[in-house]
Design goal:
It is built from four helices and six strands, in the order H-H-E-E-E-H-E-H-E-E. The protein is α+β, with helices and mostly antiparallel strands. It has one domain (3-90, 113-158). Helix 1 packs across helix 2.
Length: 165
Protein backbone atom coordinates (compact mmCIF):
# COMPACT_ATOMS: atom_id res chain seq x y z
CA UNK A 1 0.00 0.00 0.00
CA UNK A 2 1.42 3.38 -1.00
CA UNK A 3 0.69 5.62 1.98
CA UNK A 4 2.86 8.38 0.54
CA UNK A 5 0.64 8.55 -2.58
CA UNK A 6 -2.53 8.46 -0.46
CA UNK A 7 -1.36 11.48 1.54
CA UNK A 8 -0.42 13.44 -1.58
CA UNK A 9 -3.82 12.68 -3.10
CA UNK A 10 -5.49 13.91 0.12
CA UNK A 11 -3.50 17.16 -0.07
CA UNK A 12 -4.62 17.74 -3.66
CA UNK A 13 -8.28 17.07 -2.75
CA UNK A 14 -7.99 19.52 0.13
CA UNK A 15 -6.50 22.18 -2.18
CA UNK A 16 -9.28 21.65 -4.74
CA UNK A 17 -12.05 22.16 -2.17
CA UNK A 18 -10.23 24.98 -0.36
CA UNK A 19 -9.80 26.93 -3.58
CA UNK A 20 -13.41 26.25 -4.54
CA UNK A 21 -14.38 28.05 -1.32
CA UNK A 22 -15.95 24.97 0.30
CA UNK A 23 -13.70 25.06 3.37
CA UNK A 24 -13.17 27.62 6.13
CA UNK A 25 -10.52 26.85 8.70
CA UNK A 26 -10.32 28.50 12.10
CA UNK A 27 -8.05 26.05 13.95
CA UNK A 28 -5.32 23.55 13.21
CA UNK A 29 -7.82 20.85 14.16
CA UNK A 30 -10.01 21.95 11.25
CA UNK A 31 -7.08 21.38 8.90
CA UNK A 32 -6.39 18.03 10.56
CA UNK A 33 -10.03 16.92 10.24
CA UNK A 34 -10.22 17.84 6.55
CA UNK A 35 -6.95 16.06 5.73
CA UNK A 36 -8.11 13.00 7.69
CA UNK A 37 -11.35 13.03 5.69
CA UNK A 38 -9.50 13.29 2.36
CA UNK A 39 -7.15 10.48 3.36
CA UNK A 40 -10.19 8.26 4.03
CA UNK A 41 -11.64 9.21 0.64
CA UNK A 42 -8.36 8.32 -1.10
CA UNK A 43 -8.16 5.00 0.75
CA UNK A 44 -11.74 4.09 -0.15
CA UNK A 45 -11.11 4.95 -3.80
CA UNK A 46 -8.04 2.71 -4.10
CA UNK A 47 -8.54 0.02 -1.46
CA UNK A 48 -11.84 -1.69 -0.80
CA UNK A 49 -11.56 -3.06 2.70
CA UNK A 50 -11.54 -0.87 5.81
CA UNK A 51 -10.33 -0.28 8.45
CA UNK A 52 -7.91 2.12 6.84
CA UNK A 53 -4.69 2.90 8.63
CA UNK A 54 -4.99 6.63 9.21
CA UNK A 55 -4.71 8.17 12.68
CA UNK A 56 -4.76 11.65 14.23
CA UNK A 57 -2.63 12.87 17.11
CA UNK A 58 -0.78 9.61 17.47
CA UNK A 59 2.49 8.94 19.29
CA UNK A 60 4.79 7.18 16.86
CA UNK A 61 7.90 6.94 19.05
CA UNK A 62 7.40 6.91 22.82
CA UNK A 63 7.32 8.86 24.97
CA UNK A 64 6.44 12.07 23.08
CA UNK A 65 7.07 11.87 19.34
CA UNK A 66 3.54 12.85 18.39
CA UNK A 67 2.37 13.70 14.87
CA UNK A 68 -0.90 15.21 13.70
CA UNK A 69 -1.61 12.55 11.07
CA UNK A 70 -0.07 9.12 10.55
CA UNK A 71 -0.78 6.68 7.74
CA UNK A 72 0.07 3.00 7.90
CA UNK A 73 2.50 1.88 10.54
CA UNK A 74 4.53 5.11 10.45
CA UNK A 75 4.94 4.98 6.64
CA UNK A 76 3.77 8.58 6.17
CA UNK A 77 3.37 11.15 8.95
CA UNK A 78 2.57 14.85 9.04
CA UNK A 79 2.86 17.84 11.35
CA UNK A 80 0.31 20.55 10.58
CA UNK A 81 0.30 24.29 11.19
CA UNK A 82 -2.39 26.83 10.39
CA UNK A 83 -2.02 30.59 10.43
CA UNK A 84 -5.67 31.58 9.95
CA UNK A 85 -6.88 34.91 8.69
CA UNK A 86 -9.21 36.58 11.15
CA UNK A 87 -10.59 39.56 9.23
CA UNK A 88 -10.97 42.65 11.38
CA UNK A 89 -8.86 41.33 14.24
CA UNK A 90 -5.77 43.46 14.94
CA UNK A 91 -2.46 41.60 14.51
CA UNK A 92 -1.63 42.09 18.20
CA UNK A 93 -4.72 40.04 19.17
CA UNK A 94 -4.39 37.28 16.58
CA UNK A 95 -3.52 33.80 17.69
CA UNK A 96 -0.57 32.78 15.58
CA UNK A 97 2.12 30.21 14.99
CA UNK A 98 5.68 31.25 15.73
CA UNK A 99 8.29 30.68 13.03
CA UNK A 100 10.36 28.86 15.66
CA UNK A 101 7.52 26.32 15.94
CA UNK A 102 7.81 25.61 12.23
CA UNK A 103 11.60 25.25 12.47
CA UNK A 104 11.09 22.84 15.37
CA UNK A 105 8.67 20.80 13.23
CA UNK A 106 11.24 20.61 10.43
CA UNK A 107 13.88 19.32 12.88
CA UNK A 108 11.45 16.83 14.40
CA UNK A 109 10.42 15.49 11.00
CA UNK A 110 14.05 15.10 9.90
CA UNK A 111 14.76 13.21 13.14
CA UNK A 112 11.75 10.93 12.55
CA UNK A 113 13.10 10.06 9.11
CA UNK A 114 16.50 9.27 10.65
CA UNK A 115 14.67 6.88 12.98
CA UNK A 116 13.09 5.05 10.04
CA UNK A 117 9.94 6.93 9.02
CA UNK A 118 9.96 6.77 5.19
CA UNK A 119 7.90 9.93 4.51
CA UNK A 120 7.31 12.90 6.81
CA UNK A 121 5.54 16.12 5.88
CA UNK A 122 5.29 19.61 7.26
CA UNK A 123 2.00 21.10 6.07
CA UNK A 124 1.60 24.81 6.74
CA UNK A 125 -1.39 26.83 5.58
CA UNK A 126 -0.67 30.54 5.94
CA UNK A 127 -3.74 32.69 5.30
CA UNK A 128 -2.16 36.02 6.19
CA UNK A 129 1.34 35.81 4.65
CA UNK A 130 3.22 35.94 7.97
CA UNK A 131 5.25 32.79 7.27
CA UNK A 132 5.68 33.47 3.59
CA UNK A 133 7.84 36.39 4.73
CA UNK A 134 9.64 34.35 7.41
CA UNK A 135 10.49 31.48 5.02
CA UNK A 136 10.89 33.10 1.59
CA UNK A 137 13.25 30.42 0.26
CA UNK A 138 10.83 27.48 0.55
CA UNK A 139 8.38 26.62 -2.25
CA UNK A 140 5.07 28.10 -1.12
CA UNK A 141 2.01 27.40 -3.25
CA UNK A 142 -0.33 30.36 -3.69
CA UNK A 143 -4.00 29.46 -3.18
CA UNK A 144 -7.19 31.46 -3.67
CA UNK A 145 -10.09 31.01 -1.28
CA UNK A 146 -12.81 33.34 -2.43
CA UNK A 147 -11.35 36.85 -2.30
CA UNK A 148 -8.56 35.81 0.06
CA UNK A 149 -5.09 34.64 -0.89
CA UNK A 150 -3.39 31.97 1.16
CA UNK A 151 -0.09 30.15 0.95
CA UNK A 152 0.48 26.45 1.39
CA UNK A 153 3.76 24.74 2.13
CA UNK A 154 3.98 20.97 1.89
CA UNK A 155 7.55 20.12 2.77
CA UNK A 156 8.50 16.49 2.27
CA UNK A 157 11.23 14.80 4.31
CA UNK A 158 12.43 11.29 3.42
CA UNK A 159 14.31 8.49 5.04
CA UNK A 160 17.94 8.42 3.93
CA UNK A 161 18.33 6.49 0.69
CA UNK A 162 14.69 6.92 -0.38
CA UNK A 163 14.50 8.21 -3.94
CA UNK A 164 10.70 8.39 -4.31
CA UNK A 165 9.29 11.75 -5.47
Amino acid sequence: MDYHAIFLEAIEAFIRDYEAGHLRLLTKQDLQAYLFHYCLEAFSKHYSSPPYKVHCGVVIFPPRERVDIALGDREAVARLRLEPDYPGLPPSEKPFVFSDDIEHDFKQLRALCERGVPHAYAVILDEDGRHLQAFPMVPWRKLKNGEREAYLLVRHFRKAGDSSP
